[in-house]
Write a structure and sequence with these properties.
Blueprint lengths: L21 H14 L6 E4 L4 E4 L3 E7 L4 E7 L8 E8 L2 E8 L7 H13 L2
Antiparallel strand pairs: 1-2, 2-3, 3-4, 4-6, 5-6
Length: 122
């Protein structure tokens, strides 16, 4: 017996870049390069996002036509204008949302935030 219909296709990373600007793919590639400095990273495409995984997901990527919305885990609510939305998940866990439009947005500060999130997920 099949678990799913044969017409259902599993999401792929490439699917998230259909009808997106070239810059969006460059931002994603820059994020991925930065994360791989910390250790192994698994790309786990979902229907509406791509999860970047250490032992558990440490970053969520939602592609838009001209940008990426990056979601990170943190133990602190980081005070930065770069963060447009925050959610307190528990006493010691925050989800922080950033909008990225250029590979230049993935700078040293962003890499530090990614590393913190990566370490929390391992």
């Amino acid at each position: 017996m099949r678990d799913r219909e044969s017409t259902v296709t599993d999401p792929t990373v490439a699917m998230h870049f259909i009808n997106r600007s070239h810059e969006v793919r460059l931002v994603y590639d820059q994020i991925l390069r930065g994360c791989k400095r910390f250790g192994p990273v698994i790309e786990d495409p979902k229907k509406t996002s791509i999860h970047l995984v250490n032992r558990s997901a440490f970053a969520g990527i939602q592609t838009r036509r001209e940008s990426i919305v990056l979601t990170l885990k943190s133990t602190l609510d980081i005070d930065s204008d770069r963060i447009f939305r925050r959610e307190r998940a528990s006493a010691n866990r925050w989800y922080l949302y950033l909008k990225l439009t250029s590979p230049d947005d993935v700078d040293a500060e962003m890499i530090r935030w990614l590393e913190t999130s990566y370490r929390l997920s391992g």
